[in-house]
Amino acid sequence: MKHVGLLGIMATFVLLAGCQDTQLINCQQENQALQTQLDQAKATATAKDKKIEDLEGEIQTVNQKALESIRTILEKQNAKDVELKNKLKIKEAEAAELQQKLDAMQAPVVDADTGEGGM
Fold first, then answer.
1. Cβ distance 24 to 32 under 8 Å?
2. Cα separation of 55 and 63, whole Å?
3. Are the C-beta atoms of residues 41 and 47 closer than 8 Å to each other?
4. What is the spatial distance between Cα 68 and Cα 76, in angstroms, rounded to a whole number?
């Protein structure tokens, strides 16, 4: 009896130790698959974050260059505007001087026609 009881205990122990629960195995396999997917998702997210940071840096560089170009264009245009205004003032002064000369030249002719004049 002692041998049978001992044999029964050993048989139970072997069965329990050697028992492989299929649900447990399936859960472990699913856990491993999900962990792999999680690791891949994290790697993908990290790569995408890096790409976003790179693109944001490029956008900032392009925006800075665009602003510098616009400022340069505006400064050049402003310089041209000042130059044109100065030329316009000179031309207006020349036109006024020519108008005075023309008026002076026409004055004796008008005086001669009316009979009034200095001769």
1. no
2. 12
3. no
4. 12
Residue 112 and residue 118 in contact, taking contact as beta carbons nearer than 8 Å: no
43, 25, 45: which is closest to 33 by C-alpha? 25
- Separation of alpha carbons 42 and 11, rounded Å: 47
What Cα–Cα distance (Å) separates residue 20 from each residue in 14, 31, 52, 111? 11, 17, 47, 133
Q: Residue 117 above 70 pLDDT? A: no
Give alpha helix (H) positions in the chain: 2-18, 22-114
Amino acid at 50: K
pLDDT of 109 > 70? The answer is no
In this predicted model, which residue has the larger pLDDT, 99 or 16? 99
Output the six-digit token pair for 60: 């900032």
